[in-house]
Amino acid sequence: MTKINVVSTIARIVLGILFVAHGLDKFQMGLGNVEAWFDSIGVPGPLAYAVAYIELVGGILLIAGIFTRYVAALLVIILIGAIITTKLSVGLLGNGQMAGYELDLSFIVIAVYLIVADRSPLSLDHMLWRKRSA
User: Where are the transmembrane segments (predicted)?
Assistant: First the structure.
């Protein structure tokens, strides 16, 4: 296993853990509350449910390393949506009351890397696709 494979695996697992945490946070707040907040900022409320499930399940899938490219692409879309709808107006570093979009940009860079990188040998993706191509 190369250094790149190790770093790719660490990046995938850490990003997965972070999105599991974000998804769980939405469930703990109550999806109804998240829906109301989405409505209050002009985002259709029902999207709160999709975002929460994508973050939670997507994070778990990233940790396991399955459907990594597809999950990472969905997360990029969610992150771009979060920047455009809530964080762009407060700036890169935020305004003292709300965080800026610097963390979202970091997550986007990691997710884009996972979309284009070779499959890590320590992932279910690698095991599944290796067997199919053999």
Answer: 47-67, 74-93, 105-122
